[in-house]
UniProtKB/TrEMBL annotation:
A Pfam family: Methyltransf_2
Keyword presence, Hydrolase: no
UniProt keyword annotations, A-Z: Methyltransferase, S-adenosyl-L-methionine, Transferase
PANTHER family: O-METHYLTRANSFERASE
GO biological process, one term: methylation
O-methyltransferase C-terminal domain mapped to chain residues: 1-142
Full protein name: Trans-resveratrol di-O-methyltransferase
Length: 161
């Protein structure tokens, strides 16, 4: 599993500890992973998600895509698809991010829209509806996806080649 933009490895460490037979890689910018120490099943790789994502059975991204505009998300997702596709088998991409749902109760929708305003003002990204996500996924060649609302405002999104 590759944790794209995984920082100092908090999530990947938890996964590696829970599943000791799984090899985890944290991919982040050189200055972020400099000095990070891996374990037997956790390694840190300095790199740029817009250029290359190491091959893996699964690519994981938590709170990454909402930071970027659609054009940049397309590049990231293309690299993810390349990373999980090889001649023997295809893996999947796992995303933890927000899916704005206008059918949700008022307070949750209000909070989701507040986050959207934050992303627009603090980054060049935004929060997306399922329709917005689907356009990105299909444009990068993924054939199907599954969205499972979990973790309050967040959803678990699985992409399949």
């Amino acid at each position: 599993m590759v944790d794209v933009g995984g920082g100092t490895g908090t999530v990947a460490k938890a996964i590696a500890d829970a599943f000791t037979g799984l090899n985890c890689v944290v991919l982040d910018l050189p200055h972020v992973v400099a000095g990070c120490e891996g374990t037997e099943n956790l390694t840190f790789v300095a790199g740029d998600m817009f250029e290359y994502i190491p091959p893996a059975d699964a690519v994981f991204m938590k709170w990454i895509l909402h930071d970027w505009p659609d054009e940049k998300c397309l590049k990231i997702l293309e690299k993810c698809k390349q990373a999980i596709s090889n001649k023997d088998k295809e893996g999947k991409v796992i995303i933890v991010d927000m899916v704005v749902d206008f059918k949700k109760e008022h307070k949750i929708l209000e909070t989701q829209l507040f986050f959207d305003m934050l992303m627009i003002n603090l980054t060049s990204g935004r929060e997306r509806t399922e329709k917005d996500w689907a356009k990105l996924f299909l444009a990068t060649g993924f054939t199907s996806y599954k969205i499972t609302p979990v973790f309050g405002l967040r959803s678990l999104i699985e992409l399949f080649p």
